[in-house]
Design brief:
Order of helices and strands: HHH
Helix content: over 70%
Number of strands: 0
Structural class: mainly alpha
Amino acid sequence: MNLVKRLVREEEGQGMVEYALIIALIAVLLIGGLTGLKDKIAGCFTDIGNTIKPSS
């Protein structure tokens, strides 16, 4: 029972959990944004690849 009381009172891991949740939220937003922009990003790389000419 003392273990349960101690775990309820301790807050050392709380900060780590909050940081993990923030990082997970940022990752989800980035993945969603990049997925939505994938055609534009691919088009930019295609344009760059077509612009660069081989040196030979």
